[in-house]
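RETRY 2/3 - previous attempt timed out on the joint model. Re-submitting the same 736-residue input unchanged.
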Amino acid sequence: MAFHPRQNYHASSKSQGMSRRDFITRAAAMGLAFPTLSAFLAACGDGGATDAVQVVIGSPANPVTQPLLDSNQMISSGLPAEAGPLRIYNWADYLNPETIPLAEEALGTSIELTTFFNEEEALQKLISGEVNFDVFFPVAGSIPKVVAGQLIQPLNHEYLPNLSNIWPQLADPFYDKGSQYTVPYTVYSTGIAWRNDMVDDADVTGIDNAWDVFWNPKYADIPVGLYDDFRETLGAALYRNGVTEVHNATQAEIDQATADLIELIDLTDIKYTIDGAYAGIPEGRFGVHMAWSGDMVSAPYYFPEDGDPSVTRYAWPAQTGSSVHGQISSDTMTVLKGSENPVLAHQFLNFMLDEDQALTNFGWVGYQPPQKGLDVDYLVADEWVPEYLSSAIVRPEDFSDPRASVPIALTADQEAKLLDAWTKVQSGG
Amino acid sequence: MASNLQSAETEAVGQKTWIWQAFAMPGVVWLIVLFVVPFYAVISVAMGDIDPIFLKPQPEWNPLAWDPSAFGAVFGDLFGGQLGKIAVRTMGYVASASLLCVAIGYPVAYFVARRVEKHKALWLLALLAPFWINYLMRMLAWVNLLSPDGWVNKAIALFGFPEQNWLSGRAIVVILGLVYGYIPYFILPLYAALDRIDTQVIEAAKDLGASPRQAFLRVTAPMSKQGVLAGLVIIMLPMFGDYYTPNLLSGSPRTRMIGNQIDQFINQTTSQGGQGAALTLVLMAFVAILMVYYLINISRVTQKARE
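RETRY 2/3 succeeded.
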């Protein structure tokens, strides 16, 4: 059996976390900011804060600058590094174990890595103030609230010369213009994975609306799966119907998507999983499954010894069709406000933004760093990604593609609508 | 004089009682720390509100400020909503699986307790063997066995049956999965109850002219009723909250159980944590009814035995 370091039961938890990372903030309407009392902030475990809190949510059409607060200042330039140890708080299986000793050597300190399986759990611990970490890896969609809750500190770019390696589309992202609080870590699209020994390529890439493959009655006899994730899966059903913004979908659009998904229960015996793409496709448990591009880069390592990984295919419907939408997402690296080693933390971020280090990390994690030097041609030519999965590599221009939808925070009302729909989908109508 | 003696005796008994009561302390502390406090926390989450920035449940520790609206939502959905369908389905699955456990488990327990003469320890070992392997591991093994090119399909192919897609969301597979997973927990207490029955009682029945069938129906069966009930309580409580069995063996909305819904409320996002806590409490109240029936039954039997 081919061995991949991420091949353990927890790897699925990681993906599961990945799925939920992007849609939690929904108190504010898009592009709006609202103040609440600092008293609330005190309740959040930061008694010293006096600024009013602002949750500022942006969108590609309306990029936002996150507020800088008097009570949350960036560190000065030119400070000496602390002794450490540097404490990193990251998703499980989201940092190459070989990267850690390399970083320890480069930074001259020891590193303590603590992992979490879902971001809600991680935020709960950070808010409680009971844990003490330096570096944290939130999803882009969480940035508005972690800034408003003053969990992270502004970054001093003097310590981050390698930020220039990052794609311009993400060096100045819509959720945090000027990268004041965040630097990008990875990028990934949400698409379709299939085995071409069970599903015809033409039924995915040969049609204008690739999402239709899940509704193709031809595949009633092969296992078909979608992610057990309300936003991703309802999103796919909405995109299929020509809706482009999940956070703005109307009730009628949501109802239609719900009915379409319920139809799948009998049409193709649809199953909802979280490991069906990276593990289920290689094991033959699924012929076609919704997939994150980063999971599919790892999929070949999950094939049994006598399996042929080259049957794996991945498509991002936004790329294969003329107008249908697909989601594209990014994760970030941040320095926590309560960090005792802020200089070391900045140095670690800079280390991870180095092209070689980013590549080493990618080789194990499978989720791609948005590095200028690491384009599709290079990653395929240098055999980091097999040719047959080159479509799982995200390109900088994908972020500005009119067919790309980024996960934008949901309002409480919209999330309630979607969750209600999801319960219907999940209970069979 | 007599009264003096009596008081001295009472004192001694009182002292002893105090000592025996102290023996309960570790158990009481255990219950408070690991049951009462978490239980109160679940109520506080169900009755609390949502934090405006991180939109996660804020437990409300003060009972005077409790807001029961999450219960309203859950009850509304249970009676006439999606949740009602899931609840009925769950009850159907648990009832079917429990009946099958009795049908399969009783003869096994009876055989080992009453019929096995040689190598009884070996038989007992066989009954205990499933406890050595984690429930999840045993279910994952079935996922492999039932997969399209798994051994189950290979086996039925030998008899000329067509290949089946067992894992495509079949209720029967989930029910059998529940039976397979929980039956060891049913057999063991039942075995203990059957093994305790004094063989002389059965011999007496036979001496008095009872046929083996009558002896079983009039003596063994009533005397093992407590064992069956204990076994049922032990397996039904976790079955009601089970969510990984349908997840692993089906994954289809067709076989969704209450446990999956709680999992969704709590794990899909944070904003429904209150409803998840409320549904957990409703489920607890429901299984408590089963538990109370069992306890009443036990106390009735104990009382009868004393008389």
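The radius of gyration of chain A is 21 Å. Closing ticket.
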